[in-house]
């Protein structure tokens, strides 16, 4: 599926980039062509506006000549254009590169051409002429534009070569852009498939165990309920797991739909953290965990009490689960002008570096069997991240394998 998507993305990207390159090159070509045309027109206009005797006084010295003839004679030579008409014109040259024979051929083309401004080709060279009636005189200015047009054509060839050569880098650039664009989609798709697989497994396991225990009960119908209590307890445990999983999924979805600006209240985070830690005192004492708290007094925040309670409970409960007997848990809460910071740190096995960026994924467990044995649904940290992001905050994790793991929540004020 993603191979076909990459091909389509690459093709579209190539077309877009190539069109962009072509647009730039065409713009350059047209700008160059327009500048050349303007330069030719300005040069002819400049010499047409000067007295004919001054054309040799220009520093530019272009390959140009100007011919003058009275209108009556001009009308006559139009009828005998095939003869030597050069002798009827008074012609002055900006330089000496024209022969009388060339001048006669050029003037013959100009006289026979109906347009007053045009481009003609004589003996393989291009000339731009302007024919203008001034009083009883007809003035003709002719400029050799062969070199200018050759420059334009050379630019065309160069741009065409650049366009063809650009196909190779355009292809690799398109591949790079495509890979950068598709990779997050592919990662999201893989995680979604993994989530569906995990949720199917999470649902199937307690249901299978419950059905198995129910089958055992059915096979011993004659026995008393008390004698079957073991199987009933097994079934209750799995059904409770299933209930917690479903409730956590529903809560996670409800967080996404929760309006962070509606129903806000002044939440005393200091008291909330203290109550949450004390409510889990039995679990902490059972594992002989040393608890260190550093809770700043009078830390208030505009939030939803239920969401903040769930956030704190998830982080503290997670720390207890992954702290070995005799370990240490540190809980701190502080507030500055910029943000409110909650930090929960615990000693223990830690988290491998390759798993750090996945601990907030739904149903992801660093140690799956251990989490299931301790009743975890695999959705706690995903819920914590959703709650924190709901208030525009961030949650991060840092871990040293074999030493400790630290979760830190920062919510801007």
Instruction: Spell out the helices and strands N to C.
Output: HEHEHEEEHHHEHHEEHEEHHEE
Enumerate the spans where pLDDT stays under 50 for 5 or more consecutive residues: none
pLDDT averaged residue by residue: 83
Which word captures the global form?
rod-shaped
What class, by secondary structure content? alpha+beta
Number of strands: 12
The main pleated sheet reads as: 5 strands, antiparallel
Distance between the termini: 45 Å
Strand order of the largest sheet: 2-1-5-4-3
Keywords:
single chain; 413 residues; alpha+beta; five-stranded antiparallel β-sheet; five-stranded mixed β-sheet; 53% helix; rod-shaped
Describe the structure.
The chain is α+β, with helices and mostly antiparallel strands and 413 residues long. Strands 2-1-5-4-3 form a 5-stranded antiparallel sheet. The protein contains 11 helices and 12 strands. The longest helix has 53 residues, at 167-219. The mean pLDDT is 83. A hairpin with a 3-residue loop joins strand 11 (394-400) and strand 12 (404-412). The chain has helices at residues 2-48, 71-77, 100-112, 146-165, 167-219, 229-257, 269-279, 281-286, 305-321, 368-373, 380-390; strands spanning 64-70, 90-93, 117-122, 125-134, 137-144, 265-268, 290-295, 300-303, 328-335, 339-347, 394-400, 404-412.
Short synopsis of the structure:
With 413 residues, this protein is α+β, with helices and mostly antiparallel strands. It is built from eleven helices and twelve strands.
Please write out the topology.
Elements: H1 2-48, E1 64-70, H2 71-77, E2 90-93, H3 100-112, E3 117-122, E4 125-134, E5 137-144, H4 146-165, H5 167-219, H6 229-257, E6 265-268, H7 269-279, H8 281-286, E7 290-295, E8 300-303, H9 305-321, E9 328-335, E10 339-347, H10 368-373, H11 380-390, E11 394-400, E12 404-412
Parallel strand pairs: 7-9
Antiparallel strand pairs: 1-2, 1-5, 3-4, 4-5, 6-8, 9-10, 10-12, 11-12
């Amino acid at each position: 599926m993603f191979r076909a998507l990459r091909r389509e993305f690459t093709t579209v990207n190539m077309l877009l980039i190539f069109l962009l390159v072509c647009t730039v090159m065409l713009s350059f070509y047209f700008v160059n062509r327009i500048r050349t045309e303007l330069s030719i027109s300005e040069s002819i206009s400049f010499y047409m506006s000067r007295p004919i005797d001054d054309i040799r006084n220009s520093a530019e010295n272009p390959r140009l000549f100007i011919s003058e003839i009275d209108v009556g004679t001009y009308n006559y030579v139009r009828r005998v254009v095939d003869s030597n008409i050069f002798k009827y014109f008074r012609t002055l040259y900006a330089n000496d590169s024209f022969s009388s024979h060339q001048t006669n051929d050029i003037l013959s083309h100009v006289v026979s051409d109906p347009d007053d401004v045009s481009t003609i080709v004589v003996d393989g060279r291009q000339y731009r002429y302007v024919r203008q009636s001034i009083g009883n005189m007809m003035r003709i200015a002719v400029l050799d534009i062969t070199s200018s047009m050759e420059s334009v054509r050379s630019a065309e060839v160069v741009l065409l070569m650049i366009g063809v050569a650009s196909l190779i880098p355009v292809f690799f650039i398109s591949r790079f852009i495509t890979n950068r664009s598709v990779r997050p989609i592919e990662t999201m798709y893989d995680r979604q498939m993994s989530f569906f697989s995990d949720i199917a497994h999470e649902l199937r396991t307690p249901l299978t165990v419950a059905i198995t225990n129910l089958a055992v009960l059915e096979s011993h119908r004659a026995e008393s309920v008390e004698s079957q209590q073991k199987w009933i307890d097994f079934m209750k445990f799995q059904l409770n797991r299933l209930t917690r999983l479903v409730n956590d999924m529903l809560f996670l979805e409800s967080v996404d739909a929760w309006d962070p600006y509606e129903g806000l209240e002044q939440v005393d985070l200091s008291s909330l953290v203290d109550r949450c830690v004390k409510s889990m005192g039995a679990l902490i004492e059972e594992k002989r965990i040393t608890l260190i708290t550093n809770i700043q007094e009078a830390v208030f925040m505009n939030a939803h009490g239920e969401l903040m309670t769930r956030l704190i409970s998830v982080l503290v409960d997670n720390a207890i689960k992954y702290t070995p007997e005799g370990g240490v848990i540190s809980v701190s809460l502080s507030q500055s002008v910029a943000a409110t910071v909650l930090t929960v740190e615990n000693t223990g096995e830690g988290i491998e570096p390759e798993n750090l960026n996945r601990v907030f994924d739904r149903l992801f467990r660093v140690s799956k069997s251990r989490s299931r044995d301790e009743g975890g649904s695999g959705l706690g940290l995903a819920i914590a991240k959703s709650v924190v992001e709901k208030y525009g905050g961030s949650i991060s994790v840092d871990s040293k394998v074999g030493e400790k793991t630290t979760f830190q929540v920062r919510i801007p004020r």
